[in-house]
Design brief:
The protein is of the alpha/beta class. The chain is about 50% helix and about 10% strand. The structure holds cobalamin.
């Protein structure tokens, strides 16, 4: 009989994947990913540590010093980015993401209230999250910024069927329609929508956005334009108002969003 108690298994087999694995914790992610500014950090920590009750006072304090849009980008977004990292590292699970998303929702609503909207609207724009996609945080941020920039945002919500989005485009004939996709399984909604819009004889641009979509993909089909960050949208919309079509937006994209 072999006596296994005397065997040193570490000399026989080394699990290099385990040995080299960096074990992330919410605290270590906070050190690496959250902002240093105390007001912004307090906002980001509410998201990362899922403190739903604390987000309102943290937002109000930060918005006392910084513009609401800056608090979104400098506080809320780094918080959810850290949540995304912890989920990818299997430290956080779906329920953690759900609570963190709730904190984001409350924060974005407060920021939106503070940003307000213009009295006269410049144009109608349609926004939605792609069919099958429940991720709408980025869309909500972009919608708040577009409202503040003076556009009438028709927000179709999330998991919007392709045909519902296209029917709304036919009905409203907006300046553009934007779509958000964070999942590789949902981004194919955009070329499908663009094709139907084109078939309806409309030349209305479809702005493909969200973490799953890059510029190359979003401009790989007719009518497709791209916006990488929520604050890129207003300068692009301004050019559309000036008469640019989707092709010209793509040709001059770098200079259009360069200053944003
Ligand atoms: C929060 C979150 C959730 C929340 C979403 C809540 C909500 N209301 O949105 C909940 C908990 C519901 C969720 C669920 C799931 N999620 Co999730 N989720 C995330 C997480 C952590 C953050 C996403 C986010 O909001 N980021 C912050 C925002 C600000 O970023 P954003 O949307 O990209 O927006 C920016 C830009 O893209 C742009 N933008 C976006 N939209 C628009 C629109 C316009 C007009 C403009 C101009 C710009 C713009 O502007 C923003 C910045 O300025 C990501 C991780 C990650 N790294 O992204 C995973 C992530 C997206 N989820 C993922 C997955 C797999 C899921 C689930 C399938 C998990 C599961 N096992 O069930 C489910 C979905 C199930 C289903 N089909 O219903 C994967 C997707 C992988 C893939 N490539 O397909 C990710 C990447 C996590 C991972 N690493 O695996 N999730």
């Amino acid at each position: 009989m072999i006596d296994y108690s005397k065997v040193d298994f570490s000399k026989i087999l080394t699990r290099y994947d385990v040995k080299t694995q960096v074990v992330e914790t919410p605290e270590s992610a906070a050190e690496k990913m959250l902002p240093d500014d105390p007001l912004m950090r307090a906002v980001a920590e509410c998201v990362l540590f899922k403190k739903v009750k604390d987000i309102a006072p943290a937002m109000m304090a930060a918005m006392g010093k910084y513009a609401a849009a800056d608090v979104i980008n400098g506080g809320l977004v780094p918080g959810i980015d850290a949540v995304g990292k912890l989920y990818a590292d299997h430290v956080y699970y779906l329920p953690d993401m759900m609570v963190a998303a709730k904190v984001m929702e409350v924060g974005i609503k407060l920021a939106e209230k503070s940003m307000g909207g213009a009295r006269e609207t410049k144009a109608d724009v349609i926004m939605h999250a792609a069919e099958g996609d429940p991720h709408d945080i980025g869309k909500n941020i972009a919608a708040a910024m577009m409202k503040a920039a003076g556009y009438n945002v028709i927000d179709l919500g999330r998991d919007v069927p392709v045909t519902v989005a296209v029917d709304k485009v036919k009905e409203i004939k907006p300046l553009f329609i934007s779509g958000t996709a964070l999942m590789t399984t949902t981004m194919s909604a955009f070329p499908a929508e663009a094709k139907l819009i084109k078939e309806a004889g409309l030349n209305i641009p479809l702005m493909g956005c969200g973490g799953a979509v890059n510029r190359e993909y979003a401009t790989s089909y007719e009518l497709g334009i791209h916006s990488d960050k929520a604050n890129h949208t207003a300068p692009i919309a301004q050019k559309l108002l000036e008469g640019y079509d989707w092709k010209r937006i793509n040709e001059e994209w770098d200079s259009i969003v360069g200053g944003a």
